[in-house]
């Protein structure tokens, strides 16, 4: 009974620490986000009339939603394309970040320096530096010069042509080569995930691997029987983070379309409707995928 009371007290202290950790976000959300959140929802059902000192919201029912699904054909196309890109990008980021974390968890000289290098994507993905990168004319001219000098010849291109002409798994190969061509973007988006996986790997006791080795367990078997189960909760965390991060990227075509409708055309109601449609679709994708992933998550005390 005494041990149970101690365990319950420890769990309560952990819960209190967790709530204190997220308290700044909760306070900020309640103070600054709740009102705009519901105003955006109401605005999606309205037609906004603008004028000098005028911002009138005229309730129009589902007019904006009907327009998004039945009139604006580009929005439906972008929804399908960006959802597919999000899925394959999230898979690539998860695989890349996990295996990089496995490598960085090994003991070798200069490990701290190498870890710092792989943390650079977190810095490079910040708003200012990312904007400098995409708007850097010098980098753009260098890229053009390299492409011209290369003559559009590459090993991946040759392999792609061979596999595509064979006619076997054409669609699958297309997706694989899209990921290979976008490996830079995958690396840029993997900084936080690498750190999360690495922190989980460092919590696994070395005695578990030693006991498995004594019992004749190979490295491959240890990976599936020890490493994966012990850090399986982090797969769920990283999956959700990766999806949300992709939806906020500056090269997301849906976000660009919403911004154009709001800023360039001043269609605030229509832009709000598209935002809520995209938001709900992403929530559904996160809910379904999280439910599936959670079935394989192993929780331990």
Give a nutshell description of this structure.
This protein is mainly alpha-helical and 301 residues long. The chain is 79% helix and 4% strand. A two-stranded antiparallel sheet has the order 1-2.
Overall SS class: mainly alpha
Radius of gyration: 24 Å
Total beta strands: 2
Extract low-pLDDT stretches. Answer: none
Q: Count the helices. How many? A: 14
Shape: elongated
How much of the sequence is in beta strands? Answer: under 5%
Strands in their spatial order, largest beta sheet: 1-2
| Succession of helices and strands | HEEHHHHHHHHHHHHH
Give the integer mean of the pLDDT values.
Answer: 79
Largest sheet: 2 strands, antiparallel
Helix content: over 70%
State the separation between the terminal residues, measured CA to CA: 18 Å
What does the secondary structure layout of this molecule look like, with pairings?
Blueprint: H1 2-43, E1 46-51, E2 54-59, H2 63-71, H3 73-104, H4 111-124, H5 127-134, H6 137-150, H7 155-166, H8 170-181, H9 183-188, H10 191-202, H11 206-214, H12 219-247, H13 253-264, H14 268-294
Antiparallel strand pairs: 1-2
């Amino acid at each position: 009974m005494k041990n149970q009371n101690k365990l319950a007290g420890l769990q309560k202290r952990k819960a209190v620490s967790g709530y204190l950790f997220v308290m700044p976000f909760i306070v900020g959300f309640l103070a600054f986000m709740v009102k705009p959140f519901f105003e955006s929802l109401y605005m999606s059902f309205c037609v906004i009339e603008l004028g000098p000192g005028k911002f009138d919201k005229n309730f129009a029912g589902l007019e904006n939603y009907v327009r998004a699904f039945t009139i604006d054909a580009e929005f439906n196309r972008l929804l399908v394309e960006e959802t597919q890109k999000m899925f394959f990008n999230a898979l690539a980021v998860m695989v890349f970040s996990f295996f990089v974390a496995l490598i960085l968890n090994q003991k070798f000289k200069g490990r701290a320096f190498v870890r710092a290098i792989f943390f650079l994507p977190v810095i490079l993905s910040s708003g200012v530096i990312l904007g400098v990168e995409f708007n850097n004319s010098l980098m753009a001219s260098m890229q053009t010069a390299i492409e011209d000098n290369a003559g559009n010849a590459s090993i991946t291109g040759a392999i792609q042509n061979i596999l595509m002409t064979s006619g076997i798994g054409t669609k699958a190969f297309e997706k694989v080569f899209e990921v290979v061509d976008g490996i830079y973007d995958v690396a840029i988006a993997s900084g936080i995930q690498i750190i999360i996986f690495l922190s989980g790997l460092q919590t696994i006791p070395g005695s578990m691997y030693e006991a498995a080795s004594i019992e004749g367990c190979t490295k491959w078997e240890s990976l599936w029987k020890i490493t994966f189960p012990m850090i399986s909760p982090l797969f769920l965390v990283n999956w959700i983070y990766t999806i949300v991060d992709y939806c906020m990227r500056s090269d997301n075509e849906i976000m660009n379309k919403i911004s154009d409708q709001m800023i360039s055309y001043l269609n605030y109601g229509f832009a709000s409707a598209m935002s809520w449609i995209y938001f709900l679709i992403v929530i559904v994708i996160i809910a379904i995928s999280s439910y599936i992933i959670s079935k394989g998550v192993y929780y331990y005390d």
